[in-house]
Design brief:
With 313 residues, the protein is α+β, with helices and mostly antiparallel strands. The chain is 68% helix and 11% strand. Helix 1 crosses helix 6 and helix 7 packs across helix 8. The termini are far apart.
Length: 313
């Protein structure tokens, strides 16, 4: 087996306060971006409306497309180039007309404009308001169900503090990924939701490996005195470091190929996975174990204070 780090002895737990600061900065920047922009930019799957993908014979100027749409009162539509310079996506929010009617009007307006030349309508999608709202709720339920499942599973397999720390680390990964989506003006779509759920599973897997190693070490070193819990956790993270990084690199390169060569349809999903792999590895090394250490030290401190109070009484 390839070993990237033969005998690693990095003080990850000792640097946890710096790691918290880095995480807080990233999450704060992402949340600020979402607040300034009025939330995530939901794809038509969640927001509802009409989406038309059009391929022109020659690359058109975007202002000509907007001018053509302005003639039918849809000049405020979102117009985005989609991969090839000749392909564009036009998104229209829900309005008084039915999505089907809006779609027909857009096709007619673009086809009749001589400034745009010949075109081919490659995709037309309609999503009603109720469907969009239902999908938003289902997305929230899916993420919450995933987190609750992780909480229960790790609590049963290890203990409650490990479970809460793992869920906190996963929540950290989700927030960083959503912040990255907002900062780069990417859409939150159904494939992106699938990527978020994948990140949740991926991140907690590495955390469980570190927890397992900690438990094995505590059994083997039961007679060894002088090692604090923080040192034991640090050893466990170091001993699983090669596996964690190698696994991350495998997924990282796969998602990088999808991101750069997978086309526009997969780009947002691949970007979410790309960010999620990085932050998931980071949280496994710096956040999950560190939170368990914080909790353990807090409980030990309370126990010491209680014993002193009993001794004085």
């Amino acid at each position: 087996m390839i070993e990237l780090f033969r005998v690693p002895d990095y003080d990850f737990i000792g640097k946890r306060r710096w790691a918290y600061l880095v995480s807080i900065i990233f999450i704060a920047v992402g949340l600020t971006s979402m607040a300034v922009k009025g939330g995530l930019r939901y794809d038509i799957d969640f927001a509802g409306g009409t989406l038309i993908q059009v391929r022109f014979a020659e690359p058109p100027a975007i202002d000509k497309i907007r001018t053509s749409l302005s003639r039918i009162g849809l000049g405020e539509s979102v117009i985005q180039q989609f991969g090839d310079p000749r392909e564009y996506i036009v998104r229209m929010p829900l309005g008084p007309s039915s999505p089907e009617e809006v779609g027909r009007r857009v096709q007619t307006a673009l086809s009749a404009d001589p400034a745009l030349g010949p075109l081919e309508v490659r995709r037309v999608e309609f999503v009603g308001p109720q469907v969009g709202r239902d999908l938003q709720l289902q997305a929230i339920y899916a993420v919450l169900a995933g987190l609750v499942g992780i909480l229960v599973y790790i609590a049963l397999r290890f203990d409650l503090k490990g479970s809460v720390a793992a869920v906190a680390a996963v929540f950290h990964d989700v927030l960083v990924s959503l912040g990255a989506l907002s900062l780069t003006d990417r859409d939150f779509s159904l494939p992106v939701l699938a990527a978020i759920l994948t990140i949740i599973g991926y991140s907690v897997n590495d955390t469980i490996v570190a927890y397992d190693r900690l438990r094995e070490n505590r059994g083997k070193l039961a007679q060894q005195k002088g090692l604090s819990f923080a040192q034991q956790m640090n050893n466990a993270v170091n001993q699983t470091l090669s596996r964690t990084v190698l696994t991350a690199l495998t997924v990282f390169f796969s998602t990088a190929i999808l991101l750069f060569f997978g086309g526009k349809v997969l780009e947002d999903m691949a970007f979410t996975l790309f960010v999620g792999v990085v932050t998931g590895t980071y949280s496994t090394i710096y956040i999950a174990g560190a939170l368990v250490v914080e909790w353990t030290q807090y409980m030990e401190g309370r126990l010491r204070r209680a014993r002193k109070a009993v001794a004085k009484a």
